[in-house]
Amino acid sequence: xxxxxxxxxxxxxxxxxxxxxxxxxxxxxxxxxxxxxxxxxxxxxxxxxxxxxxxxxxxxxxxxxxxxxxxxxxxxxxxxxxxxxxxxxxxxxxxxxxxxxxxxxxxxxxxxxxxxxxxxxxxxxxxxxxxxxxxxxxxxxxxxxxxxxxxxxxxxxxxxxxxxxxxxxxxxxxxxxxxxxxxxxxxxxxxxxxxxxxxxxxxxxxxxxxxxxxxxxxxxxxxxxxxxxxxxxxxxxxxxxxxxxxxxxxxxxxxxxxxxxxxx
Length: 264
Known about the structure:
Blueprint: E1 2-6, H1 10-21, E2 25-29, H2 38-42, E3 47-50, H3 57-60, E4 70-72, E5 89-93, H4 98-102, E6 107-111, H5 114-120, E7 125-129, H6 133-152, H7 160-179, H8 190-199, H9 205-215, H10 226-235, H11 246-254
Parallel strand pairs: 1-2, 1-3, 3-4, 4-5, 6-7
Antiparallel strand pairs: 5-6
Protein backbone atom coordinates (compact mmCIF):
# COMPACT_ATOMS: atom_id res chain seq x y z
CA UNK A 1 0.00 0.00 0.00
CA UNK A 2 1.32 3.40 -0.98
CA UNK A 3 1.26 6.34 1.43
CA UNK A 4 2.15 9.90 0.40
CA UNK A 5 4.06 12.04 2.90
CA UNK A 6 3.69 15.75 2.08
CA UNK A 7 6.65 17.36 3.81
CA UNK A 8 10.09 15.76 3.87
CA UNK A 9 11.43 17.56 6.92
CA UNK A 10 12.50 15.97 10.19
CA UNK A 11 9.02 14.98 11.41
CA UNK A 12 7.79 13.89 8.00
CA UNK A 13 10.75 11.57 7.49
CA UNK A 14 10.38 10.26 11.06
CA UNK A 15 6.78 9.26 10.35
CA UNK A 16 7.70 7.98 6.91
CA UNK A 17 10.46 5.86 8.42
CA UNK A 18 8.00 4.13 10.71
CA UNK A 19 5.70 3.32 7.81
CA UNK A 20 8.57 2.15 5.59
CA UNK A 21 9.81 -0.17 8.34
CA UNK A 22 6.33 -1.66 8.51
CA UNK A 23 6.44 -2.47 4.82
CA UNK A 24 4.43 0.38 3.29
CA UNK A 25 5.44 2.03 0.03
CA UNK A 26 6.33 5.62 0.94
CA UNK A 27 6.62 8.55 -1.45
CA UNK A 28 7.64 12.03 -0.24
CA UNK A 29 6.74 15.42 -1.62
CA UNK A 30 9.08 18.28 -0.75
CA UNK A 31 8.12 21.55 -2.42
CA UNK A 32 11.59 22.97 -1.72
CA UNK A 33 13.32 20.19 -3.62
CA UNK A 34 10.64 19.42 -6.22
CA UNK A 35 12.15 16.08 -7.18
CA UNK A 36 8.72 14.92 -8.25
CA UNK A 37 5.45 16.54 -9.15
CA UNK A 38 2.70 16.52 -6.57
CA UNK A 39 0.40 14.60 -8.91
CA UNK A 40 2.96 11.80 -9.22
CA UNK A 41 3.37 11.50 -5.46
CA UNK A 42 -0.41 11.40 -4.98
CA UNK A 43 -0.98 8.85 -7.75
CA UNK A 44 -2.41 5.56 -6.42
CA UNK A 45 -1.81 6.55 -2.78
CA UNK A 46 -4.20 5.18 -0.16
CA UNK A 47 -3.40 7.76 2.53
CA UNK A 48 -2.02 11.30 2.46
CA UNK A 49 -0.01 12.50 5.47
CA UNK A 50 0.24 16.30 5.75
CA UNK A 51 3.44 17.37 7.55
CA UNK A 52 4.30 20.68 5.85
CA UNK A 53 4.54 23.89 7.96
CA UNK A 54 1.14 25.39 8.73
CA UNK A 55 2.00 28.53 6.73
CA UNK A 56 2.51 26.43 3.58
CA UNK A 57 -0.45 24.10 4.06
CA UNK A 58 -3.22 26.44 2.80
CA UNK A 59 -1.41 26.73 -0.55
CA UNK A 60 -1.14 22.97 -0.84
CA UNK A 61 -4.57 21.87 0.34
CA UNK A 62 -6.52 23.06 -2.76
CA UNK A 63 -4.41 20.70 -4.87
CA UNK A 64 -5.16 17.59 -2.82
CA UNK A 65 -7.93 15.08 -3.64
CA UNK A 66 -10.77 15.54 -1.16
CA UNK A 67 -11.89 11.90 -1.41
CA UNK A 68 -8.70 10.26 -0.10
CA UNK A 69 -8.04 9.84 3.65
CA UNK A 70 -5.94 12.75 4.91
CA UNK A 71 -3.86 12.48 8.08
CA UNK A 72 -3.09 15.96 9.40
CA UNK A 73 0.20 15.89 11.31
CA UNK A 74 0.90 19.59 10.76
CA UNK A 75 0.57 21.72 13.90
CA UNK A 76 -0.53 25.34 13.86
CA UNK A 77 -4.16 25.21 12.72
CA UNK A 78 -6.45 27.03 15.14
CA UNK A 79 -9.54 25.17 13.92
CA UNK A 80 -10.85 22.74 11.32
CA UNK A 81 -12.07 25.18 8.67
CA UNK A 82 -9.13 24.43 6.35
CA UNK A 83 -10.38 20.85 6.05
CA UNK A 84 -14.09 21.51 5.55
CA UNK A 85 -13.99 20.17 1.97
CA UNK A 86 -12.26 16.90 2.85
CA UNK A 87 -14.58 13.93 3.17
CA UNK A 88 -12.23 11.93 5.40
CA UNK A 89 -9.58 13.67 7.47
CA UNK A 90 -8.04 12.79 10.82
CA UNK A 91 -5.45 14.37 13.12
CA UNK A 92 -2.17 13.07 14.57
CA UNK A 93 -0.51 15.28 17.16
CA UNK A 94 1.37 15.32 20.44
CA UNK A 95 4.73 15.69 22.18
CA UNK A 96 7.12 14.00 19.80
CA UNK A 97 10.45 15.41 18.65
CA UNK A 98 11.48 13.89 15.33
CA UNK A 99 14.91 12.94 16.63
CA UNK A 100 13.38 11.01 19.54
CA UNK A 101 11.03 9.10 17.26
CA UNK A 102 13.86 8.24 14.87
CA UNK A 103 15.92 7.05 17.83
CA UNK A 104 13.11 4.79 19.03
CA UNK A 105 12.45 6.73 22.24
CA UNK A 106 9.11 5.85 23.85
CA UNK A 107 6.59 8.47 22.76
CA UNK A 108 2.86 8.93 23.36
CA UNK A 109 0.89 10.88 20.74
CA UNK A 110 -2.81 11.59 20.15
CA UNK A 111 -4.88 10.14 17.32
CA UNK A 112 -8.44 11.01 16.26
CA UNK A 113 -8.93 7.85 14.20
CA UNK A 114 -8.17 4.18 14.77
CA UNK A 115 -6.53 3.97 11.34
CA UNK A 116 -3.72 6.24 12.56
CA UNK A 117 -3.14 3.88 15.47
CA UNK A 118 -3.08 0.87 13.16
CA UNK A 119 -0.63 2.54 10.76
CA UNK A 120 1.86 4.06 13.18
CA UNK A 121 1.85 2.07 16.42
CA UNK A 122 5.21 0.45 17.26
CA UNK A 123 6.81 -0.87 20.43
CA UNK A 124 7.98 2.71 21.15
CA UNK A 125 5.22 4.85 19.59
CA UNK A 126 1.76 4.59 21.16
CA UNK A 127 -1.40 6.69 21.16
CA UNK A 128 -4.20 8.06 23.29
CA UNK A 129 -7.47 8.76 21.50
CA UNK A 130 -10.22 11.33 20.99
CA UNK A 131 -12.69 12.12 18.24
CA UNK A 132 -12.29 15.86 18.97
CA UNK A 133 -10.39 16.84 15.82
CA UNK A 134 -10.92 20.57 16.29
CA UNK A 135 -9.66 20.39 19.87
CA UNK A 136 -6.51 18.48 18.90
CA UNK A 137 -5.77 21.05 16.21
CA UNK A 138 -6.29 23.91 18.66
CA UNK A 139 -3.97 22.33 21.22
CA UNK A 140 -1.27 21.98 18.57
CA UNK A 141 -1.45 25.70 17.82
CA UNK A 142 -2.02 27.08 21.32
CA UNK A 143 0.86 25.23 22.98
CA UNK A 144 3.28 26.99 20.61
CA UNK A 145 1.83 30.39 21.51
CA UNK A 146 2.11 29.69 25.22
CA UNK A 147 5.65 28.36 24.74
CA UNK A 148 6.69 31.71 23.26
CA UNK A 149 5.27 33.45 26.32
CA UNK A 150 7.03 31.03 28.68
CA UNK A 151 10.33 31.90 27.01
CA UNK A 152 9.49 35.60 27.06
CA UNK A 153 8.85 35.39 30.81
CA UNK A 154 12.15 33.50 31.18
CA UNK A 155 10.47 30.69 33.12
CA UNK A 156 12.99 28.00 33.97
CA UNK A 157 11.80 24.39 33.53
CA UNK A 158 11.65 22.53 36.82
CA UNK A 159 11.01 25.62 38.92
CA UNK A 160 7.76 26.22 40.86
CA UNK A 161 7.07 29.24 38.64
CA UNK A 162 7.32 27.12 35.50
CA UNK A 163 5.07 24.41 36.96
CA UNK A 164 2.50 26.98 38.04
CA UNK A 165 2.54 28.47 34.54
CA UNK A 166 1.87 25.05 32.96
CA UNK A 167 -1.02 24.43 35.35
CA UNK A 168 -2.61 27.83 34.72
CA UNK A 169 -2.13 27.61 30.96
CA UNK A 170 -3.70 24.13 30.86
CA UNK A 171 -6.84 25.59 32.44
CA UNK A 172 -6.81 28.48 29.96
CA UNK A 173 -6.53 26.03 27.07
CA UNK A 174 -9.57 24.15 28.40
CA UNK A 175 -11.54 27.40 28.50
CA UNK A 176 -10.41 28.25 24.97
CA UNK A 177 -11.47 24.86 23.63
CA UNK A 178 -14.85 25.14 25.33
CA UNK A 179 -15.39 28.63 23.90
CA UNK A 180 -14.62 27.29 20.43
CA UNK A 181 -16.96 24.27 20.41
CA UNK A 182 -14.35 21.68 21.38
CA UNK A 183 -13.97 19.25 24.30
CA UNK A 184 -11.96 20.69 27.23
CA UNK A 185 -10.91 17.15 28.22
CA UNK A 186 -8.76 17.01 25.09
CA UNK A 187 -6.24 19.21 26.92
CA UNK A 188 -5.62 16.33 29.34
CA UNK A 189 -4.31 14.14 26.50
CA UNK A 190 -0.77 14.05 25.18
CA UNK A 191 -1.64 16.59 22.47
CA UNK A 192 -2.51 19.06 25.24
CA UNK A 193 -0.64 18.96 28.54
CA UNK A 194 2.04 16.63 27.24
CA UNK A 195 2.88 18.75 24.22
CA UNK A 196 2.62 21.96 26.24
CA UNK A 197 5.24 20.73 28.70
CA UNK A 198 7.56 19.59 25.92
CA UNK A 199 7.25 22.87 24.02
CA UNK A 200 7.76 25.17 27.02
CA UNK A 201 11.35 23.99 27.33
CA UNK A 202 14.56 23.67 25.34
CA UNK A 203 15.09 22.81 22.51
CA UNK A 204 11.66 24.12 21.48
CA UNK A 205 12.05 26.79 18.81
CA UNK A 206 9.03 28.66 20.17
CA UNK A 207 10.38 28.75 23.72
CA UNK A 208 13.82 29.83 22.54
CA UNK A 209 12.40 32.59 20.34
CA UNK A 210 10.34 33.86 23.27
CA UNK A 211 13.60 34.38 25.14
CA UNK A 212 14.98 36.29 22.16
CA UNK A 213 11.88 38.52 22.09
CA UNK A 214 12.40 39.30 25.77
CA UNK A 215 15.61 41.09 24.80
CA UNK A 216 14.54 42.41 21.39
CA UNK A 217 10.86 42.96 20.56
CA UNK A 218 11.72 43.54 16.91
CA UNK A 219 13.58 40.24 16.49
CA UNK A 220 12.80 38.24 13.34
CA UNK A 221 13.10 34.43 13.47
CA UNK A 222 15.69 32.82 11.22
CA UNK A 223 13.54 29.68 10.98
CA UNK A 224 9.81 29.05 11.14
CA UNK A 225 8.31 29.74 14.57
CA UNK A 226 4.81 28.28 14.37
CA UNK A 227 3.63 30.10 17.49
CA UNK A 228 4.05 33.50 15.84
CA UNK A 229 1.78 32.47 12.98
CA UNK A 230 -0.84 31.20 15.42
CA UNK A 231 -0.55 34.34 17.54
CA UNK A 232 -1.03 36.54 14.46
CA UNK A 233 -4.24 34.61 13.66
CA UNK A 234 -5.45 34.96 17.23
CA UNK A 235 -4.80 38.71 17.14
CA UNK A 236 -6.91 38.86 13.96
CA UNK A 237 -9.82 37.35 15.87
CA UNK A 238 -9.85 33.89 14.29
CA UNK A 239 -10.88 32.23 17.58
CA UNK A 240 -13.05 33.27 20.52
CA UNK A 241 -11.08 34.23 23.64
CA UNK A 242 -12.88 33.95 27.00
CA UNK A 243 -12.16 36.51 29.71
CA UNK A 244 -10.56 33.76 31.82
CA UNK A 245 -7.69 33.35 29.32
CA UNK A 246 -5.66 35.96 31.19
CA UNK A 247 -2.19 34.93 30.04
CA UNK A 248 -3.21 34.83 26.41
CA UNK A 249 -4.79 38.27 26.73
CA UNK A 250 -1.60 39.54 28.39
CA UNK A 251 0.49 38.13 25.56
CA UNK A 252 -1.73 39.71 22.90
CA UNK A 253 -1.22 43.11 24.54
CA UNK A 254 2.54 42.66 24.99
CA UNK A 255 2.98 41.52 21.40
CA UNK A 256 1.55 44.72 19.92
CA UNK A 257 5.07 46.07 19.38
CA UNK A 258 6.56 42.81 18.08
CA UNK A 259 7.59 42.50 14.45
CA UNK A 260 5.01 40.41 12.57
CA UNK A 261 6.24 41.40 9.10
CA UNK A 262 5.86 38.45 6.76
CA UNK A 263 3.74 36.50 9.25
CA UNK A 264 0.40 35.48 7.78
